[in-house]
Structure formats: structure tokens, C-alpha cells
Amino acid sequence: MSTTSNIELHTYLPRFPDEALKEFTEWCIFEQAAAAGYELVPDTKKLEDLEPAYYVEELVDQFVKATRNSIEGGLSILLAGKEADGNALKGIPIVVDFVSLYIKYLAPKGEKNTQPTNEKLAQVAQEQFDKLSEIAKNYGIKM
Predict the structure, then answer these.
(1) Residues 124 and 38 sit within 8 Å (Cβ to Cβ)
(2) Fewest Cβ atoms nearer than 10 Å: which of 68, 97, 106, 107?
């Protein structure tokens, strides 16, 4: 569990089909991370015709490779990896858990952030929960 928020997305992720997890991952990377200043221009050729699970893995891999080469990125990877491992998910849910945590820890360091770290962490966690809740409604999943 994060020390900055009591929202635990990992408890919900296994309930979602891969297509919904794909939608959430795209939102995390293309909207939430981009809003913090971490914009990804994906290699769309590598994403073409992939099943949702493989698409998520490839997209997360591209995002991590594009953002990890800084102190902030490296530290965020360590924090997210440790927390995701502790959440003990399997398959695509663990990949989605990792990337949501990675973005959560990366966002406060983003060039577009002006809030104190704890406030930004709480805001990012709430935004993720709200988006996941919205997707859940679209797929008929109770949270």
C-alpha cells in the first residue's frame, strides 16, 4: 500500500478484461503522464495488430524505456516495482499495476508539476481511481 494514499487499485485490476486494462493503460500513459510532462511518441508499428495483453506489455515497455534514464525515472521504477511485486498480481494486471504506480511516483517530478509531492501523489492516485471507476461502469464491473 502506498504511504501517501489509501487507494489500492491493485485490488480491482484482476476484475477487468484485458481490453479495459488496455484502455486504462493508454489513459495513464497518453493523458496522465503527458499532463505531468512525460509525453510518449510510441512506435506504432510495434503496437499494430497486437492482442490487448501484448499491446499493454509493449506500450508499457516503450514508456518505461523512454522515461527511465533519469534519477526520477530510476527511483520511480524502483518504488513502483517494489510495490507492484508486493501486490502479488499476475499477468496483465501486474503490468497495469506497475505502470499506474510508476506514473504515480513519476508525476510529482514532472516539469509541469507545481504542487508539493504529497499533494501530487494523492491527486494522481485519485485521478487513476476515478478513471478506473469510469472504465468499470463502461464494462459493467462493480468496484
Answers:
(1) no
(2) 68
User: pLDDT digit string (tens) for 108-121?
Assistant: 887 777 788 889 89
For residue 113, how many other CB atoms are within 10 A of its CB?
18
User: From CA 22, how far away is CA 97, in angstroms rounded?
Assistant: 12
Q: Do 40 and 66 touch, CB atoms closer than 8 A?
A: yes
Map residue 3 onto helix, strand or coil.
coil
| Enclosing H/E stretch for 96 | helix 92-106
CA dihedral 114, 7, 87, 80 (to 10 degrees): 0
SS3 label, residue 10: helix
The pLDDT assigned to 3 comes to 39
Helix residue spans in the chain (DSSP H) = 18-27, 34-36, 44-47, 52-67, 71-87, 92-106, 117-139
What is the number of other CB atoms lying within 10 angstroms of the CB of residue 90? 8
Q: Cell 501486474 appears where? A: 94
- How many CA atoms lie within 13 Å of 66's alpha carbon, on the beta-carbon side? 18
Report d(CA 82, CA 112) in Å as an integer. 26
